[in-house]
Amino acid sequence: MKSVHNNNIKKWVLSLLIPVTILATDLGFRFEIVKGFELVQLFFYLSSIFFSVFLYCFFLFSLIGTNKAKRTYEILLITIAIFYTIAVIGSYGYYQYSGIMPNFFVFSFMFQEPYNSWVLFKAGLSIVSLLLFVTVFFIFYLALRSITRREKFRFFRWTYLALILCLILLNFFFHNNARFNDQMYVTDTNAVVFINRNVYNLLTGDRLGSAGLQSRNKPKLGIETNTSKPNVLLIIAESLRRKSMGLYGYERDTTPRLDRWFATNTGGNKVLFKNSFSNSSSTLISVPSILSGISPDQPVALTHNSPLFWEYGKAVNLSTFFISSHSFRWNNFEGFFKNAGIDYLWNKETSGNPTFNDIGIDDRKTVKEFKKHVSLLKKNGNSFAGVLHFNTNHFPYFIPKESEFLPVGRDILAPYDNSVRHLDSLVDDVLNFLEKEDLQKDTLVIFTSDHGETIFEHGYIGHVESNHIETVSIPMFFYVPESLRSQTRDQILKINQDRNVENIDIIPTIIDFLGLEGRKDIAPYMAKLEGKSLLTKVPTDRKIFIANNNETSLYRVGLSFIYKDLHYMLRLNKTSPTEELFEYTKDKNETNNLWPNLNETKKKEYRSLLKDCNLCFDLYSTADISL
Length: 627
Fold this sequence. Notes:
alpha/beta, Alkaline Phosphatase, subunit A, seven-stranded mixed β-sheet, four-stranded antiparallel β-sheet, GAG_Ulvan_Degrading_Sulfatases, Sulfatase
């Protein structure tokens, strides 16, 4: 009798092992956050615990119901044990690095880019993590096996059906609230809710309320004929941060060719902007922003109704091209660019080349195509306005083996620094080609990046979930050919080299270089641009607005702005929204948050700098903060 009693106690203890582990681990990692939950947040949190318990019971009864079929039982048992092991270790491992639980966009990344997800997973593997994973798996496996192998349940069918009904109803509830409550759930509930949401989105085309890029309304611009205009080449790098470039003072020799190019007198004016910033750390917002000149704080309709770079080129009868290493099927870039006046479009899909890095092709092939096409334009006597779009510096930073100059091992910066050095060689190849073909004397070259990258500086790798300085500080330089130079222009560009400039300054500057600013068909579009032509003096007190949140892209990151030597951030991708302020020119790694020590008057003063930003009102209301 005593033996039976002890066995019952043992089974009860083992039955509670997994749910208790989940709750204890969650509170162990997030107790201070859970303690600060408001009533509504606490309701979602408790609901997630109920879902977690129902899910666990559902799994137990599924195992009990199949324990007579040995093979089915073992497969199901291993699958459930793996699910709980990944949920616990994966979720809280991610939380430890990033400060947030895996949300919709993390799971979306896994769905859209499984290859990159696998690379990232492998990068985080260690002997300790593998031992931990195996240990937890066997504990869960043995516990589940012990309590289900020979167990019977008299009212199994009706209880099972009731559990399924409860899970379906709760899942619908979480599904409809997934957008705003992605940090309120315990780990297994979190995983199920966001996997289900991504599957639903794939099947229905839903974007979690985000419109994504849409097809554009083509602006009506006239075409000047018999004009003599320069070539314009806009080079856009991907995820290239200023911080890792020798050109900007980085201690590693990552840009030797560009260093030499800047030191060589080629007749043109080489302008290196020391304080250049992106308007978003999301490609989905930043690339359209660069090409349209429309800021993410402006209505999204403007992005879809304003001329893009090539349309300004067509307005002065230039031949246009877009040669890119990227896939344009991603987020409907293909549809967005469809009627943008591009004479020659070449990308991953049209090239037929295989994937090399991220979802893009080998940039060496892209440079080869660029040289081939520009040589043809020169042969036919056509001037051009073209974009050359690279991919090298995107995670996981794959480059040709022969281009590695740092050994890849324990040095977490080596893969990225190698990719910067590889890009340096690609850009050098392009610049040498222009010189060899005698095109540099008539070609305006503008180089920039869509955004930067963080490499564990703030417990995160990537760019989308961070607005810290390393993700928004980007390189920008101009090569102004002799034909476009003047003493006044050189002086103004020299002044602006040390001032805060941004990606949305590029389109106004190109309009200025092409002499379009006085045209009546261009003027209405120019009036809506918030950027400044860099051929005019940029104000020293300008605000540079940065966001990943608008109707195009609903990443719940928040917003930030650069003002003089200060960088303000409102972070929404934490359970409780936070505000941070850094003196980024002195605190280059943004480790000293000044915000907690400010009085309320000073805080309101900084928030008031955003009083003219309509998008900001929405984001602040989400954070329950008054502007």
